[in-house]
Amino acid sequence: MVLNLMCKNNKKGKHLLARGFSTVELLVVMSLMLVVITSSVGIFLLVSRTQKRIIASQQIQGKVRYAFELVTRDIHTSTIDYDYYKDNNIQLLGNDNEVLPIDILALRDNFNQPVKYRLSGYKLQTSRGYTSGSETWYDLLSDNVKVVNLGFYIVPATNPFAPCTTLECGEVPNQQPRITISIVATNSVASIDAGYPQVIMRLQSTILSRVYFR
């Protein structure tokens, strides 16, 4: 009797194995696999976008900070070329004595040679050792970085080291020149077309000239 029962159970197990999965079971398994695959693809795309954003941010930060440090070093070791702004009728103060942003920075280095920075066509450029009108401008940033806004704020608006007579000395500001730089940069259209997300970087700093004539 026990032998007959074992045979019956063995035949039943073979029958279940031969029967396989039902349609409902297959649908459940396929649904679970679809959920797992969809989740995996979503996580992969998210990680990929995050990595590209980090790469784009690092590229912009590294190059913009390099240019920023170059300008900072020149400001520390140079004097503001007030004569350049006077000769070109560039106003540093508004009607209400507010400091106006200007798009070109004119300096004089230790050898009294002109050093200039400007924004031209989304490019930060510099010119060194050339007189006004004969400058040769060089790009400071690569083509995949675009500067969308650049402003220089100069304080004071008049040269504090200018020679003066007894009557004029009271009008000469008694403060060390300083320059505030505000820059907004982003990656280029070519970089965005290559699959990198748009990254906007904003930097602002006030630099004090270390040249002192008093």
Give the gist of this structure:
The protein is built from four helices and eight strands. It has helices at residues 2-19, 23-77, 82-87, 189-193; strands spanning 79-80, 104-108, 114-120, 123-128, 138-139, 145-155, 178-187, 200-208. Strands 1-2-3-4-5 form a five-stranded antiparallel beta sheet. The chain has a three-stranded antiparallel beta sheet with strand order 6-7-8.
Could you characterize what this model shows?
The termini are far apart. The protein has one domain (43-208). The protein is α+β, with helices and mostly antiparallel strands. The protein has helices spanning 2-19, 23-77, 82-87, 189-193, and strands at 79-80, 104-108, 114-120, 123-128, 138-139, 145-155, 178-187, 200-208. The chain is elongated, with a radius of gyration of 34 Å. The strands form two sheets. Strands 1-2-3-4-5 form a five-stranded antiparallel β-sheet. Strands 6-7-8 form a three-stranded antiparallel β-sheet.
